Amino acid sequence: MKSRPIMNERELLLQLRAGDTGSFAQLYGLYSPRMLGFLLKLTKREEAAREILQEVFIRLWEKRNTLDPDKSFRSYLFRIAENCVVDFFRKAAQDKKLGKQLMDLASERYLHVEENIYEREKSAILNQAINLLPPQRKRVFELCKVEGKSYKEVSLMMGISVSTISDHLLKATRAIRQHILLSDHIATLLSFCIIRLLFP
Fold first, then answer.
1. pLDDT per position as a tens digit, 18-32
2. Residue 83 to residue 59: CA distance in whole angstroms
3. Do the Cβ atoms of 55 and 84 come closer than 8 Å?
4. Which keywords describe this protein according to UniProt (predicted)?
């Protein structure tokens, strides 16, 4: 039996449009590992990730006639995946146990981001978020969380009360966390899915 010749992606897409199962299998082999990793990050459940992965490629096969080999196949495939994830979360709203697991996952994701804010302080995203804070709030955040000064020290330095400092830090942390989430594609998608779960 002759081995199938290696084709570039455009050729594979043209063959897939024509209904060639061999090209479909090659594309699956090329993209399924990274797609599975993407889905695992979103669902944190291997069974769900594999189920969604199969649905992604089923939809790809069903929509093969709409493929444009001159456009990014990766972007096209990941758009399908995002739609499948949204559908998954919407269906989860009907399953109370799964819905609770997903809400716990969302809370864990937000807490994880908050706990790691300081580890990412040198990143461009975090610096941008800090720079967007009002001047006094920015200064309080930098003194307390970057320089490690106590509330009392900052209170004396800035001439404001400890309660005002606490309020500034609460609002600064919230704003920074939101900015980081909006800058993170996976977190943004997860947030969108949770919104769809809560408001189907």
1. 988 888 999 999 999
2. 10
3. yes
4. Sigma factor, Transcription, Transcription regulation
Residue pLDDT, tens place only, 92-124: 656 555 555 555 555 455 444 444 444 444 456
List the domains of the chain with CATH numbers. Answer: 1-92 (1.10.1740.10), 96-200 (1.10.10.10)
Spell out a b/e string for 63-87, using b for 16 or more CB atoms within 10 Å of the CB, else e: ebeeeeeeeebeebbbebbbebbbe
DSSP state of 143: I
Burial class (CB in 10 A: 0-12, 13-18, 19+), 141: buried
Q: Are 74 and 137 in contact (CB under 8 A)?
A: no
